[in-house]
User: Fold these one by one.
Assistant:
Number 1:
Amino acid sequence: MTIRRVAIIGLGLLGGSLSLALREKLPGIATTGYDRDPATRTRAAERGLVGTVYDTAGEAVSGCELVVLCVPVGAIGEAARDIADVLPSHAIVSDVGSSKRSVQKALAEALPSHTCVPAHPVAGTEQSGPDAGFATLFDGRWCILTPPDGAPQQAIDDLTALWQALGAKVEIMDAEHHDLVLAVTSHIPHLIAYTIVGTASDMEDVTRSEVIKYSAGGFRDFTRIAASDPVMWRDVFLNNRDAVLEMLGRFTEDLTALQRAIRSGDGETLHELFSRTRDIRRSIIDEGQDDASPDFGRDH
Amino acid sequence: MTIRRVAIIGLGLLGGSLSLALREKLPGIATTGYDRDPATRTRAAERGLVGTVYDTAGEAVSGCELVVLCVPVGAIGEAARDIADVLPSHAIVSDVGSSKRSVQKALAEALPSHTCVPAHPVAGTEQSGPDAGFATLFDGRWCILTPPDGAPQQAIDDLTALWQALGAKVEIMDAEHHDLVLAVTSHIPHLIAYTIVGTASDMEDVTRSEVIKYSAGGFRDFTRIAASDPVMWRDVFLNNRDAVLEMLGRFTEDLTALQRAIRSGDGETLHELFSRTRDIRRSIIDEGQDDASPDFGRDH
């Protein structure tokens, strides 16, 4: 591990968690940070998220071996251009964004002579901002690296070692496949959750108060991810458009088939699907990606 | 409160929780129980879910002032017919089913000379069977009563008092409105969760192992409710068909609008919706229907 100084650009949930995890698990590494929002910089300094919070991105990246851009994927290009002139030539550039083809393209354009290894730790909560981060966010979660063709193996190895030291498991994947997989396991679930919460808010014949009171029937589960950061998620859908539309098409086909089964009273089709879907939950629990407690361990 | 003996027909998650809540919070009331599955009867007796488990529904309801049918809504008619000849004439008949128009009709047909007050405690977990129940399931949750026209006020008051004593808040509603409200807050969320979990399982270009590994991106939330009891949920969709299809139509319209926004790169529409949906989560937490801890309080 040759990384001694890490600059974190963007000090929200992900940037803050990365900073705190570095401090706790790799205390030998110095951290610097920058956020374009002055209020976030102030709060990050108060919480001591990084060793030093700077007022410009340029100062933050000075002397670092690794810079991690923790900004919405739509802001990656601008954040990269912001540091292009002052970034040490040997520094590795990475990120934590949820779409990877767009990030790879934006980084290659803004920093053509730097080593860029995009990354996506598949972890988060519905909260955002400089108070949302915590050191154990990445424990047991997967971090996907999508190095472009020709990325130096040393940089990939360094970044792998760093994420593993922070508690994550690392997988290497090409950006295109990443975008397809995450469309299924993250982007479509968010889109559906946002949609159903919106649909429920807009009804005339069911009041908002009723929606809230009877939300324990299942709806409240969807409101959690529909409370996620709006800018981050707007950018995800705009930047992973093709894979999202492709997966949305498949989901809609399947939903239409179930709609037809309900309309025609075809209980067998419903029962067959409803029996099959239990297995996946069991596998997710067996693989340590969720807790076995009923109802997410909610306090009853 | 004139109820001294309650018969519980069906000893799964809901029947078992009702039994345990009665024992803990209304210990003066005697409970009897029956389940058509012999293995469930044996297990219920071992756990002491009710005072006495009987081998026939007829024996279980003998001498009771209230019988609560805790069976899938598609089995309500049969369960009611099963006790019609032996049920004391003064006994109130209720249930815990998720659709109420169909239940009201089935009870009126099977037990035309009894007082029937259908009920729906909006509470549950993804688990089922005689080991799944617990006494605090109804604490702070809403229980909706849908008494038919002409139901005696005394019966409604008795049932209200009983559910309140078990920790629930009670609301009276007509069956038709119940079915519309619950289609939104419970049935459509379940249908969507089952669908997306099915879609993710059936893909060729994304492996099942990838779906499981990267499920922390949002997908795992949906697998919880998609692990719910298949028979119960098949029956809900077959018995609340009209309201489910109506609400599904509205959801699909909204999803199509978002799909168009993604295709055309209309970030403003996405951002506007994603900002709006945060409020509902906050209201649900403020009203005590979910916990404020990030990520459902999952252990990080």
Note: Chain B touches chain A through 109 residues (CB under 8 Å).
Number 2:
Amino acid sequence: MSKLVIVGTVAFDAIETPFGKTDKILGGAATFIGLAASHFDINAAAVSIVGDDFPQEYLDLLSERHIDTTGIEIIENGKTFFWSGRYHNDMNTRDTLVTELNTLADFKPVVPEDYKDAEVVMLGNLHPIVQSSVLDQMSKKPKLAILDTMNYWMDCALDDLINVIKRIDVITINDEEARQLTGEYSLLVAAKKIQEMGPQYVVIKKGEHGALLFHEDQVFYAPALPLKEVFDPTGAGDTFAGGFAGYLAKTNDYSFENMKNAVIYGSTLASFCVEKFGTERMQNLTSEEVHKRLLQFKQLTQFDIELG
Amino acid sequence: MSKLVIVGTVAFDAIETPFGKTDKILGGAATFIGLAASHFDINAAAVSIVGDDFPQEYLDLLSERHIDTTGIEIIENGKTFFWSGRYHNDMNTRDTLVTELNTLADFKPVVPEDYKDAEVVMLGNLHPIVQSSVLDQMSKKPKLAILDTMNYWMDCALDDLINVIKRIDVITINDEEARQLTGEYSLLVAAKKIQEMGPQYVVIKKGEHGALLFHEDQVFYAPALPLKEVFDPTGAGDTFAGGFAGYLAKTNDYSFENMKNAVIYGSTLASFCVEKFGTERMQNLTSEEVHKRLLQFKQLTQFDIELG
């Protein structure tokens, strides 16, 4: 059974959308990635940091879904990373209201001994130096290292970001970030430039417009499932990444053709994530529900033109 | 062989994009629809109006592609409809600089006798009363009536628009227009509301993000082919409609499954249209080129997840 190392925040989120607002609820990239990856028959471990204000029941929630949490350090008298944001009416843009780094400010991830030979490493959005330090700890080169990042690091740690991008196989990034990183408007040209920076595979996330996968001269485009309403987009990108990484770890097939399937799994899982606040929808998502929605995705995208 | 009636403008366009600008060149909805539909083995006729300032060579260009132009009325001492626009840097938005209706102001389309029993009617963007008058002339109910429209008619002739929408089978509309027409942000909900207004099938065009097809509770999403650059988006929507209508007329199969293929043909042809100014790319497009790009579309969208 393949191993997956997940590195990222485990956090408190407070979210406002046009549909309502929450108090501090469970959030964080590693949380969403872990919940998504738990749908695959793999060994997965989360590496993160929290304060002792973090409820044990939240950690149990991951353990119950077979995510190894021994790599989540708990700092005595420390406070857990807290993020608060407000979404605009279109749900595509948001303002950050509060960012309290707290224990995350001194996060030095330690990969559990058992996971140093993991086949897949999923580096959630963090300072690129922290992401790089995880790769340094691996006892052998992973079959696939996947990195998620955001515009914030392009603004304030570009050189470090470029250094870690050199070391990974797949980058997941949204359309605006791909344009910012390369100065190119065309996503086709932007993806090509990013490939020249290191990763052989580039995934560009376009929210309600789906996701694109690029490799050499090949492109795959998975649309997003049209939804009646997007209730809360928080965590959708991480859920996509968790589904993508989890599926690849399970199948242990890192070809472009199989990566298409991984994109579909990621999109499918993300389509659930946005239906409720925070992790609520993901906590009890069943494999029957996932299977049913994968069939919907097939109907949504597959056609049968006969070409000679 | 099925018959297709195409009603719409045949016009002069002057276009400015970040890549350059043109003098008055060949344009108009019926022109783009006709050039796209000419890729299918059908009988097609264009119904329109021009002034005697309109060059014979432009009409020949349609005839050479087997589009019957006897329904294009030429007004002595009249001037041809002229539109001029400037695209913004993102190529998704544009300003109209000039609209001279000229002969179009008194356009009373006359469907050629031979085409009054056509299987498919494609109503390009025009005043909804003009579109309705075409349906009145048909000697039998077409198997498929397709209507394209735009926000302008929602602003200034909404009642007339609603009346013609009641009479058609398929509407093609862009995402912002679908939202304006229904007051709904979710395209899934908007499409449902439009279906309740009459048409069983709703196609929502999202430009670089592709096109959605809705019918009852079914949805199909064809992404747009990612391109190195979009040179001039003028006519892309009409080219899509022409490919859609032409494919359905040729196959004479109006099922949802076959309509998926029609969407793919429309998207494929539209992906060529934007590569050059105006109709330039469409004038000499070969079936080999179309075939090759259809294969690209398959690779872009088709995957192979095994589901029990």
Note: Chain B has eleven helices and 15 strands.
